[in-house]
Write a structure and sequence with these properties.
The protein is of the alpha/beta class. It contains twelve helices and 13 strands. Bound molecules: guanosine-5'-triphosphate and magnesium ion.
Length: 424
């Protein structure tokens, strides 16, 4: 088994979309609302975007309010049977459920609807598999897919679900299950080894960056908030920006000069999403190492999204889980050009708040000024003469602080600068 492969919808970034195209797979989206109905509906709208990103099309949404999801069929049994009629009416190819399903739920729903049953986790894993381009990213996704499969290999006489067609089909029996488990364990061990090697390479690159003293600013936020658009705007780059979820998976770092001639590095990172499959947390952890070792976080929020407050909570919760919150945060309310009504935008957890439009460039100077001020915060003014033998220090000051003046004297170089305490 060389790759965990595809599990759900045929994912293709270059998929030319024509909504009447008979080759586009059509899906009915299904959610159980255990809390308020509106949140479940909003979550289904996001699921529709995920289906769209994966190259499919959502044709109908079904929400059922229940105290908890049905153990056997996710929605109630009656509702599951109603899905059959809807499938016919909309000529749907399958259903997509808004939570991770158990093997039993998948098997029962598959039997009732006699069609493809996909859950939120498989969908996200598939999108990750298609959008990941670096060696490390690909390995991380394969690992997550294998872990998902391992957790869906059922024991004790239960048939293996139709999931993971590459491994086995229905009713393979315990012997087959055991060999599948062994194969997965073996592959996971190989992947872990390869990932450890790649991690070392990345650490070396990061240490080099840290030694240079140039501040690193991580651009984080909910998926589709406009992180890549902001990176492109700040650094005149051309990272892919798209109205898709998880367009960016692999971190990209670019440099930029702040007012006052200070160089900084911006890193674009993977976006967050609510109900993030827990198998993907490790993959996120490695991608977000860049954020963990950064000097500041830009938290980009799509202020035009009615769900922006929930998105902010998801971002903060995930950052906390990944131990990334021990540094200054600037919350950047983006897409202000698309905010029609007056909304009271605030974030008390942030060190500063700026409202911008990465698309039109509105308020970029204000953002850069805030970044500079926070970086300057806690820096110390120095005015001293450095020996010519230590001339390399000038470069370090230039990178880590702000060099105000340098004067070449017979006894050395007189420098006036703001520098971090440790350098002073
Ligand atoms: N109206 C408006 N649209 C914007 C703005 N910034 C970004 N967008 C659009 O929002 C969509 C998502 O932008 P991206 O920059 O790809 O978002 P991202 O946060 O990098 O998304 P992922 O990488 O998928 O997590 C694109 O269609 C952008 O053109 C903005 O300021 N205003
Ligand atoms: Mg992006």
């Amino acid at each position: 088994m060389s790759s965990a492969g595809r599990m759900g919808i045929t994912v293709g970034r270059k998929c030319q979309k024509n909504m009447n195209d008979p080759f586009i797979e059509k899906y009915i989206l299904v959610a159980v609302a255990t809390g308020d109905y509106e949140s479940a509906e909003a979550s289904l709208s996001e699921l529709a975007m995920l289906v769209d990103t994966a190259g499919g099309k959502a044709v109908c949404k079904v929400v059922q309010s229940l105290d908890s999801a049905n153990n056997a069929t996710y929605v109630g049994k009656g509702k599951a049977e109603e899905l059959v009629g809807l499938m016919e009416e909309f000529e749907a190819d399958g259903i997509v459920c808004d939570d991770e399903l158990t093997p039993v739920q998948i098997r029962n729903l598959t039997e009732i609807t006699d069609s493809k049953v996909i859950d939120r986790t498989i969908l996200i894993l598939d999108i990750f598999a298609a959008h990941s381009h670096t060696a490390e990213g690909k390995l991380q996704v394969e690992m997550a897919q294998l872990k998902y499969r391992a957790s869906h290999l059922t024991g004790a006489g239960l048939a293996l679900s139709r999931l993971g067609g590459g491994i086995g089909t229905r009713g393979p029996g315990e012997k087959k299950l055991e060999s599948d488990r062994r194969a997965i364990r073996k592959r996971i061990a190989v992947l872990s080894g390869e990932l450890t090697k790649l991690k070392k390479n990345r650490e070396t690159a990061r240490k080099q960056r840290m030694r240079s003293g140039i501040p690193v600013i991580a651009i984080t936020g909910y998926t589709n908030a406009g992180k890549s658009t902001l990176l492109n705007r700040l650094t005149a780059s051309d990272v892919l920006e798209e109205d898709k979820l998880f367009a960016t998976l692999d971190p990209t770092t670019r440099s930029c000069i702040l007012p006052g001639n200070r160089k900084v590095l911006f890193t674009d990172t993977v976006g967050f999403i609510h109900k993030l499959p827990h198998h993907l947390i490790d993959a996120f952890r490695s991608t977000l190492e860049e954020a963990r070792f950064s000097d500041m976080i830009l938290h980009v929020v799509d202020a035009s999204d009615p769900e922006y407050e929930l998105h902010m909570k998801v971002v903060y919760d995930t950052l906390k889980e990944l131990d990334v919150l021990d540094k200054p945060v600037i919350t950047v309310f983006n897409k202000m050009d698309a905010v029609c009504e007056e909304v009271f935008l605030r974030d008390q957890a942030a060190d500063a708040v700026v409202k911008i439009s990465a698309k039109t460039g509105e308020n970029m100077e204000e953002l850069l000024k805030n970044i500079r001020d926070i970086l300057m915060d806690g820096q110390i003014y120095i005015n001293r003469v450095i020996n010519y033998s230590e001339a390399g220090m000038i470069e370090r000051i230039r990178n880590a602080g702000q060099l105000l003046k340098e004067e070449y004297l017979p006894e050395g170089i007189r420098v006036e600068a703001y520098v971090p305490a440790e350098l002073a």
